[in-house]
Amino acid sequence: MNHYILIWSVCTFVESRVCEDIRMEELVRQTGFSLAHIRDVFRKYTGKPLARYVQERRIANAAQELLDTDKTILDIAVQYGFSGRTVFSRAFQRHTGYTPYQFRSEAPVLARMRLCAGVYGAALPKRWGDGNDDNHIRAAERASVILYGVPKVAYGQNGCTPFPMCLHSCAKYLGLCVDYTRAMAESGAAFRLVWNTACWDGGNVDAIFTFDDPVKMFRCGMGAMERELKFMGRTPQTKKEDFMDFIRREIDAGNPVIALGIIGPPEACIITGYRKGGSVLMGWNVFQEYPEYRTCVRFEKNGYFITEDWWENPNTTALVATGTESLPPLTLGEVLQNAAEALEGRMCGGYAKGILAYDAWKDALLCDGEFPAEAVFPLLTERMMCHGDAMDCLFDGRRHAAKYLRRLAERHPSMASGLNAAAGELEGIPEIIRKEMIPVLGGWERGEAQTHRLARAENRRLLAGQIERMKAHDERAYGYIREVGRAD
Known about the structure:
Arc Repressor Mutant, subunit A; 17 helices; alpha+beta
C-alpha cells in the first residue's frame, strides 16, 4: 500500500470519529498495519505525531462548535473527549492562541482546509503544518472526497424551511456571514404562503413555490450568499453521469452542493461528499432519519447520510453550486420587490399564492364535506398535516421576515417608519398562531387528539376567523413594503 493511501485512511478515520473515543486497535484492524508502522509513516510524511494530529482535529471541530452552537464550553469539552473545562481551555489556547471564551466572543472566521486528498475539515486559526497538502495524490486517482464539518440541517426550533437552512449551513462552512434570517428573507421564503386549490397537498409548504418561476427562489437564495446561481435541473435528457460530474467538480473544489431530493421528497438538502466516483453520496437531509426512508440510507460516523439510490429517487430533481462567482449583495429595492412579489395574492395554475392563499386555506377548512363524520383517520391526518404546514410556514417565515425588516430599518433610517410598520404587522401573525390557533387545536403536536379537534366544525370556524385576521396583517404589511419599495 502506498503511503498516501495509509495517510488518507488515517485522516478519514480520525475526522469521522472526532467526537468518539478513537480506538487505535480499530485503526490497526482497518488498515492492516501495526500501530508503530502507522505512527512512523504518518509522522514521516506529515511532520506531525499522530496523537498531536488527533488532538488538533478535536480542537478544530470544537472551535466550529463554539461558533455554530449555543452549547456550553464544558459540554463541548466533554463532547470532544476532554476531561474538563480547564484541560480543554489549556489545550485550546495552546493550539489556537485563544481561550474558548475569547474565541467565541471574537468569532474569527474559520477557513476550510484539505486534510488530505479528498478530505476537508475545519481549519485552526493558525496553520498546523504542511501535512495537509495532497501533492502525493493526483485528483484523477480519487474516488472519494468528503467535506467534513458542514453544519447539520434538521427540523427544529432553529428553522423548518430546508432551502434557507441549507443556505445558512453552507455559508457557515464557507465562512460567509449569512444567518437563517437573512437566508429566509432574501430568498423570499419568509414571505411565502401557498395552497393547492385542487386537493389537500402536502407539498404546499415547499419553498420552491415562493415565486411563479421556480428557479427564481434559487437565484434569490444564492443572492443572499452573494453568489451567482449555477443550477442543473433534471430533464428527460439528463443522465446520472451529468449530475455526478456536477457534484464531483464542486466537491473537489471544496464546496458543498445543495440538491433537491436525494432522500425522500424534493426538498433541499446538502451533499457533502461522494464515494465510488460519485455513485454514492453523503450529506445532510432533513428526512434522513425518518423511518419511511431508512431502508435506502446508511450513516457516516459523524451523522452524514450515505445513499446509493439517490438517482432512482424521482424527487432528485436539481443541483445548486455554492462556490460560484461573487456578486454584490441584494439592494434594498431588490429585497422589497421580491418580498412584495411573494406576498402578492395571485393564482399560478391551481395554486393560490401569497395573500390569496389565505382564502383557499380558509375555504378548504370550511368545507364540511372534506371532514365527513365517517372519515378514516389517514384522511384526517392528511388534513392536519396540510393545516399544520401552513401554520409552520407562517410562524417560521413571518418571524424572520419581521426580524429582517427591522434590521433594514436600522440600516436605512429614512425608510425606518415604513419598514418597522411592516415588521409590526408581520409579527402579529405568529402571535395569532401561538395564542389562538394552537389552543384551539390543543397543542403544537400533530397527534390523534389535535387531528380530531381540527375535524370539529366549530373549531374549523374559529380557525377560519383567525386566518382572516392573519390575512389582514399580511395585506397591511404588503402595502407598507410596496410603499417603501417605491420610495427607495
